[in-house]
Write a structure and sequence with these properties.
Number of helices of chain A: 7
Shape of chain B: elongated
Helix content of chain A: 55-70%
Number of strands of chain B: 7
Helix content of chain B: 55-70%
Largest sheet of chain A: none
Strand order of the largest sheet of chain B: 3-7-6-4-5
Distance between the termini of chain A: 23 Å
Largest interface: A-B, 127 and 138 residues
Strand content of chain B: 5-15%
Structural class of chain A: mainly alpha
Oligomer: heterodimer
Order of helices and strands of chain B: HHHEHHHHEHHHHHEHEHEHHEHEHH
Number of domains of chain B: 2
Shape of chain A: globular
Chain lengths: 170, 397
Amino acid sequence: MKTKYMNPYLAGFFLGLVLLAAIFITGRGLGASGAIKSIVVATVDGVAPAHAEQSSFYGSYVGAGKDNPLKSWIVFEVAGVLIGGFLSGLISGRLKFVSEGGPRISVKSRWIFAAIGGALFGIGAQFARGCTSGAALTGMAVLSTAGFITMMAIFGSGYMIAYFFRKLWI
Amino acid sequence: MGPFVPEFISDQLNLIVALLIGIAFGFVLEQAGFSSSRRLAGVFYGYDFTVLRVFFTAAVTAMSGSLLLAYFGYLDLQSIYVNPTWLMPAIVGGVIMGFGFIIGGYCPGTSVCAAAIGKIDAMFFVGGGILGVFAFGELYPLYHTFYESTALGPIKVFDSLGISQGLFAFLLIAIAVGAFTITTVIEKKANKSSAPSLEFKPLKHKIAGAGIIMLGVVFIFMSSRQAHLTEKVKSASYGASHKVKIMSPDELAYRIIDKESSVQVVDMRMPEQFATLALPGSVNVQIKDLFGKELTPILSDRRVVKVVIGQNEEESKTAALLLQELGYENVAMLQGGLENFQRTILMPTIASTGSRWDTDVNTFRANASITISQMIADAKNRQPKVAKQEKKIQGGC
């Protein structure tokens, strides 16, 4: 089925309104990587609570008196992203189990590279305290210096290395 | 005044709000085509600049909206979460994420959205993300010091650049519109044909671009709401046409001694002055505080008369007018400011005049001087009140 995406400027405008609503109502912007972190923290805490509490990284999120890391704003928001994305795919006829990639790459390799990319994003988002949504987009909207630096670093390094990874995409 | 967390939206309700905002976020991401890794990666190879368009338009929209809401007094920018800057970690983290973007073809938000419609590569990306964060957590002691280094706090980008907020807003808009124009040309070349068909006609794009640039120009000349209103109430014509209730020092002294709960003294002097001498039950407020939302509960009770005091008549009047201009009701100014209160009540010069009235006044003032001085001394000895209990909004990823 041929599907049509929204005009990017219109989509950007709507995305901006969603972000503005988040800022206006809750005082914080959008995010994504924080939910992944919450899942990791909750899992480690569930499997090895002693290890989690001793760790200087997980330790600040778990322990007595702390809410379950899954009961957080960002986890609910990302749960919403799953629902919203699904609904959009449903009404636009884009629900399909499929993998996407450049014309010169096998599906299996694409999966491996996707996982590596995800891992890098996970690591990078910890250093930068957020990903494209939480640090770069929201940070820019609230005029945070970190937001602009992170945005420039993401796209800057992306452009610098794009040539070397062109076989993945073109 | 927004944001409505934590005063009006409880932690529980906030989770529901999070879910709803997330649904809208996911829906828009998917409609924009961000559920396609090929489209996302296209921004780096020149064949599809959707990401850049959506991303910059969203940032400009949200920024402009926040600035306008703040200007008209609907949003307290001081209360919103501003991502703090850890300079070196932000750069290193961003560079690593750039690798992740090229190699993985998604970013975390878009991968969740893509996984929702069945993109298998996105599911691998999410799985990889979980492993990445886990690896980061396990090896955390190795780079703990670096992770916490170059902490600069929640600094704003225009301050970092040493320009005004409005000028920065304009520059960001100009850069965005410039980038939209240039990338459209690049895209045409990369695809060796016309750019992907857009629903908008080119003319509409031009009008929208011109409109947003005009808004940028407005931002340059838009002073802050605080500067604008402070200037406005100071002008002679404003002072002449706007009345403010006046409370005499005697009345205030009487009501202070009576410990009336329907009076709130709002002391607008400098904190140093306030530290030296503070009237019983008064709160020290700076002009910038009036533009936040922390004082709203104190100032918006209509049954309580807010007695505004400055050092002198002029200061008291300006501050009282400002409160009225901000929409607060039942505002009064202290006649002659604190100077006058000191002169007439705290250290009264008892003139020996004949009339009965004068004698009564003198007696009242002499007694008031003793009582209020005692109240001030008592208040000083007591544990100082915790001025502001700040409930900071948590944010970030």
